[in-house]
Specification:
The chain has 144 residues and is an alpha+beta fold. The chain is 28% helix and 16% strand.
Length: 144
């Protein structure tokens, strides 16, 4: 059809053909790519656009960038009806959220800081107040 353009991409080893209207922008293409692949628009990059290096930085198309999002898909040389699929990099929003949640978890061993402090004091020859005959409930601030 003349009123539709097809864009071929490879994402995670699978080839996808996305059809967009002839007047579609790169932002519209990003939305269609998200529907087809599950890769969030915010994380998408289309690589391998060597013919479009004059328009795009390094031949990389990023639908989430404002300067790329307003471009017409038909104006990008070699983008439509290419014999070779372009590489799409991107992650699903759920995957990104899972990584962010994992980064928030404190993986340190509970009590490790206190044990480390005790070991450093022992190496310096520090004697705790309880070991020196003082009462355990009347322990003041640690000596330095």
């Amino acid at each position: 059809m003349a009123d539709e353009l097809s864009v071929r991409v490879t994402h995670r080893g699978r080839e996808h053909v996305v059809r967009v209207p002839a007047d579609a922008t790169v932002a519209d293409l990003g939305i269609e790519l998200e529907r087809a692949t599950g890769a969030s628009v915010a994380t998408q990059k289309v690589l391998g656009l060597k013919l479009a290096k004059a328009i795009l930085k390094g031949g990389t198309l990023t639908p989430s960038k404002a300067e790329d999002a307003v471009l017409a898909v038909s104006a990008i040389p070699g983008m439509c009806d290419s014999a070779k699929p372009y590489m799409l990099m991107g992650s699903a929003a759920a995957e990104v959220a899972a990584l962010d949640a994992a980064a928030q978890v404190d993986h340190r061993v509970r009590g490790f800081e206190e044990e480390d402090l005790r070991n450093r004091r022992r190496r310096r020859g520090h004697v705790s107040r309880t070991a020196a005959g003082g009462r355990a409930d009347n322990v003041g601030p640690p000596s330095t």
